Amino acid sequence: MPHVSYSELKNWYKCPFYHKLTYIDKIRLFQGNEHTAFGSAVHKVCEDLVSKKTDAVVDFKKAFLEELKRLPEDYELRKDLVQAMKKQGPELVKYVVPALKRYFKKFEVISVEESLMEEVKDFPDKEYNFKGYIDLVLKTADGRYQVIDWKTCSWGWDARKKSDKMMVYQLIFYKYYLSQKYDISLENIDVYFGLLKRTTKNSNKVEFVKVTSGEKRIQNAINFLNKALYNINKKNYIKNRLSCEGCEFKKTVYCP
Q1: Half-sphere exposure in the Cβ direction for 74 (13 Å, CA)
Q2: Model's pTM, two decimal places?
Q3: 3-class secondary-structure state, position 90
Q4: How confident is the model at residue 55 (pLDDT cuts 50, 70, 90)?
Q5: Which residues, 6 or more positions from 136, have their beta carbon under 8 angstroms from its beta carbon?
Q6: How many angstroms separate the CA atoms of 67 and 88, rounded?
Q7: For residue 134, what is the enclosing H or E element?
Q8: Is 194 a residue whose pLDDT tops 80?
């Protein structure tokens, strides 16, 4: 059965033609940079920290070097940025577990990297699964499930980004399909972004942003999913020229 992920939906929302190039034609010009390497390394350490006893500092240094090696051979690293990240990463990851305990008090770790491959029951035209990986699922003392998606950033997010529709929909989909997978009531699941702040100077390096995920927002997300799948199936690859700025395909042979 074909599947769709949040990343694919986000790219379709950005530009249907960009979606065609990346998901249909399998063309990827952007292969990562220092920031993606840093983010991947921090995610890996967060996964290890909540699932087993580990040395966060040692683990980050090892994971970051591994991620840097995965970058294209012809990519020229910004040495000053890499050196700064080597210092910022260990200082950041040591706050993750204390921040979880401070915010959620008593909790049980239900899963790390929870895999989703659930049937999209709301789309009638073709069978699809929704594919995703939830960074962390906790169960707190009140019996509620807490879904957390880690996001690395520099100093944090402003109010506009915290309420951005497409950012929010990621957590809405995770909540909806986690509920479907385990038959958990939607009303018993809360969703959060866990902001991991690279450049913040104080102990507020980890911030949990709770996202409103009521019935109306869930329905809006499902309607968006259906609209995207309908157009993907119809091969409606219209260019969204408002998204050209910053696109790696701009003025290339792939998107003249």
Answers
A1: 3
A2: 0.95
A3: helix
A4: confident
A5: 46, 47, 50, 109, 111, 112, 114, 147, 148, 149, 150, 194
A6: 16
A7: strand 129-140
A8: yes
Tokens of 25: 């034609």
| CATH code reported for the domain at 3-243 | 3.90.320.10
Nearest CA to 120 among 213, 215, 4?
4
CB 254 within 8 A of CB 22: no
User: Smallest Cα–Cα separation from 8: which of 180, 157, 170, 165?
Assistant: 170
Please name the residues in contact with 200: beta carbons below 8 A apart, sequence gap of 6 or more: 155, 156
Q: Which pLDDT band, with edges at 50, 70 and 90, does 158 fall under?
A: very high
Q: List, for residues 170-181, the tens digit of each pLDDT value.
A: 999 999 999 999
d(CA 99, CA 92): 11
**Distance between CA atoms of 187 and 180, rounded to whole angstroms?**
12
Ranges of each domain in the chain: 3-243
Q: Check: CB of residue 117 under 8 Å from CB of residue 131.
A: yes
Please, what sign has the CA dihedral across residues 212, 132, 150, 81?
negative
